[in-house]
UniProtKB/TrEMBL annotation:
UniProt cofactor note: Binds 4 FAD per tetramer. Each FAD binding site is formed by three monomers.
Swiss-Prot/TrEMBL GO biological process terms: methylation
Pathway terms, separated by semicolons: Pyrimidine metabolism; dTTP biosynthesis
Active site: 200 (involved in ionization of n3 of dump, leading to its activation)
Top-level taxon of the source organism: Bacteria
Binding site for dUMP: 89-92, 101-105, 173, 200
Function: Catalyzes the reductive methylation of 2'-deoxyuridine-5'-monophosphate (dUMP) to 2'-deoxythymidine-5'-monophosphate (dTMP) while utilizing 5,10-methylenetetrahydrofolate (mTHF) as the methyl donor, and NADPH and FADH(2) as the reductant.
Binding site for FAD: 69, 92-94, 101, 189-191, 195
Cofactor(s) named in the record: FAD
Subunit-level organization: Homotetramer.
Protein name: Flavin-dependent thymidylate synthase
Organism: Streptacidiphilus cavernicola
């Protein structure tokens, strides 16, 4: 037996986020049967696939005229791994979203931290709400990565020191920064996802431009790519009509 404090695990520094589609029940046909009940009643589900051109037209019409509820009869569950500051923004999206996130009370938080990649623009110009971002210099990038890595090491060592003293995880976690990675399941439907994408992506096709933080946009882009595979007609109509949620 030795009295030495246990070694603090070596931190992992990440510059990416991950999004996995863990389950889904979502296809363009879900929009169609929900919309066609208006005119076909309970037969609407039998009408699926009868006339693809008409189906595309119906989805376009619903999107254009903002008939939103037919886009709610589907479900996608994503497993997202991203820094806590991304989740803080994410959880502001209330309608049509369900979340469950890992706990800092019930499990020891792992030393995985966000350090931006060299291509992440570092300098902001303009006014609040409409910033433009520009490349940083090599010195700025070095300053960012070394300040973050030092600070992360220090705070994680303090967290570990408190745990080693027998302090509860829910108390010790107060020293951990928002650059720490967390993970959550997020479940939504196409309508709530479109609203999220309209606000959390920057896209020249958008009728109403948004200026999201790059890191939540990285998550949004990955979700959008997975959704586009599931519901290509709905995704195309969303783009065609200015990326406004119906
Ligand atoms: C670029 C950007 C910058 C931001 N900056 C800040 C900031 O500085 N500070 C800050 O606090 N937040 C900020 N936010 C968060 C923002 O205020 C919203 O909380 C977030 O975008 C979620 O939008 P939402 O309420 O439309 O979405 P959801 O909560 O998903 O709601 C979807 C829609 O449902 C309806 N709805 C939901 N709840 C209600 C309700 N209670 N009453 C009436 N209608 C409702 C609305 O039509 C709403 O658009 C920012 C967001 C973006 C995209």
């Amino acid at each position: 037996m030795t009295d030495e404090a246990p070694a603090v695990p070596e931190p992992i520094f990440r510059d990416d986020v991950t999004v996995e589609l863990v389950r889904s029940s979502a296809q363009d046909a879900d929009v169609l049967f929900a919309a066609r009940v208006s005119t076909a009643g309970e037969q609407s589900i039998d009408e699926l696939g009868k006339d693809p051109a008409r189906s595309k037209g119906l989805i376009n019409y619903l999107m254009r005229d903002r008939h939103g509820t037919p886009f709610e009869h589907n479900s996608m569950t994503f497993l997202v791994s991203a820094p806590i500051f991304v989740f803080r923004e994410f959880h502001r999206h209330r309608s049509g979203w369900s979340y469950n996130e890992e706990s800092g009370r019930y499990r020891e938080l792992q030393p995985v931290f966000y350090v931006p990649a060299a291509e992440r623009k570092l300098v902001q110009k303009g006014r609040p709400g409409k910033y433009e971002f520009f490349e940083g210099t090599a010195d700025q990038y070095k300053a960012v990565s070394s300040a973050m890595e030092d600070s992360y090491r220090q705070s994680y060592a303090a967290y570990q020191a408190m745990l080693a003293e027998g302090v509860a995880r829910e108390v010790a976690r107060a020293v951990l920064p928002v650059g720490l990675f967390s993970s959550m399941y997020a479940t939504c439907n196409a309508r709530s996802l479109m609203h999220f994408l309209s606000l959390r992506t920057k896209d020249e096709r958008a009728k109403v431009p948004s200026f999201p933080q790059r890191e939540i946009e990285m998550v949004a882009e990955k979700m959008e790519a997975k959704w586009a595979e599931l519901m290509p007609l709905t995704h195309a109509a969303f783009n065609e009509h200015g990326r406004v949620a119906p």
